[in-house]
Fold this sequence. Notes:
The protein has 15 helices and 8 strands. By secondary structure, it is an alpha/beta fold. Helix 10 (226-244) links the parallel strand 7 and strand 8 (252-254).
Amino acid sequence: xxxxxxxxxxxxxxxxxxxxxxxxxxxxxxxxxxxxxxxxxxxxxxxxxxxxxxxxxxxxxxxxxxxxxxxxxxxxxxxxxxxxxxxxxxxxxxxxxxxxxxxxxxxxxxxxxxxxxxxxxxxxxxxxxxxxxxxxxxxxxxxxxxxxxxxxxxxxxxxxxxxxxxxxxxxxxxxxxxxxxxxxxxxxxxxxxxxxxxxxxxxxxxxxxxxxxxxxxxxxxxxxxxxxxxxxxxxxxxxxxxxxxxxxxxxxxxxxxxxxxxxxxxxxxxxxxxxxxxxxxxxxxxxxxxxxxxxxxxxxxxxxxxxxxxxxxxxxxxxxxxxxxxxxxxxxxxxxxxxxxxxxxxxxxxxxxxxxxxxxxxxxxxxxxxxxxxxxxxxxxxxxxxxxxxxxxxxxxxxxxxxxxxxxxxxxxxxxxxxxxxxxxxxxx
Length: 429
């Protein structure tokens, strides 16, 4: 009579079969991680919920830099063609975020239409409001490079008096949203403008925690001679050391990424080798996309677990009747003590905890009485995902990577002539 129950139990114990790594990540997120995030309001504090489009999206490259450092020209150089909406000049020309994506036909999709498209991964950006969406667009064009990657151009970061003018939206917040989802962040510096403005400093700080994705490009290096280049390189490393706060030395690619003849020709071989290294790094992105998404999901799961412990600890400390407001203020002020207690009790590394100051700012706007106590079943599901399910997905990655290694990952544009001289001797003479 109850034989169907037994069948169902035995079926549930069998590991689920996944079509590929992306399919497995989608199902694991929906079944195991999302319930924990929803229960403890993770999305209000840290990052919006993930959509299917986040798992299916092509690898993305985010270009960040001060105005007129050659970000848009860099994209044109990679594609070897213009894209819809392109504007290049010595003044701050790019005043918007532009996602350059592949498509059968050329065109521009405005931000408001873009964030309601379920096939695109940009839906959560609607939270930044119309001021941002009016400064966001997708430029579509038929280009072989964009069959494998998506490139995101950003507004030139302002310096001097200009940075006092409010953009009307949370610029650092948008950068952070992209940083979490992209595969590579390229910081561009102009050899003639090494000063790091306040807004650029804030932008780099928004990228904190994603250091493994950051690559640094010293652009327009052909405009200075060999001796000056050595001085500029040293000055750039010194400036970065004050902002990045990492013990490792950052990898800096030196070159001149545009289609004009070199001004100073003496460093041609250096520029060729540096460009090949950078292009090989970009070409590895589609092959490593599944591993990157897996890595990001693990980071998200660890943060979600810590978040659950923090929220449940705050709920536990709240009085049931009187003095709720004063207790809330006390708990926010003593949040570091709660961090230390969770760290000791659950043996969690301090590196997994969210930023203290930022968490305190977010907690001010929440009603602690609506928080939930710890729910062991939800945490067990996430632990099971991290220990068992993720290990199974890891075993699938080498097979997927070997399938993708048969052909070059990124083709077309500047990548086709990657082993030739990229500066085309006599090409423009």
